[in-house]
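so my prof wants the structure for this chain in the tokens format not the other one, which i didnt know existed until like an hour ago. anyway here's the sequence
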Amino acid sequence: MSSFWLEMPASGEVLWEFVRSSDKKKLRCELRDAAPQVWQVILYQDDHLIAWHSGFSVREGAEKWARGTKAALTRRTQRPKASTTVTRMPPQPPPTMYCPTCARPLEYQQSFITSLGAATHQWDRFRCGRGCGEFEYRPQTGRLAKPRG
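here's what i got, hopefully its the right format
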């Protein structure tokens, strides 16, 4: 059973709230009884409704779902930020690549090194000297493709 509100419902019982350190957004979770034996969990960000889950027939089930949501939001806020470095001296030498259009060797341009915690990923940018365009090689996928974006 799901709900659709034409207007904002009255406030419910606040189960938890916190301010996310990464972006200073205030997150709040409320519990309310929607009908006899039906509980709803409502999520707000900076006092704007962002999500709800309806149809819990047992209050403890709604509270458990709310705790799990808070844990997921808390883990998400503690994730380290990725950093990307552009270099012409990457840790892994770029492979020899050939243009998929004209089959000529591609000219190496630069590499991008992204670090997220202990994980490091590298991808390399090439250019076709004949004018077919730029290409990126991503070792994780083993694909040569036009640059994203």
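also thought this was worth mentioning. The chain is about 15% helix and 45% strand.
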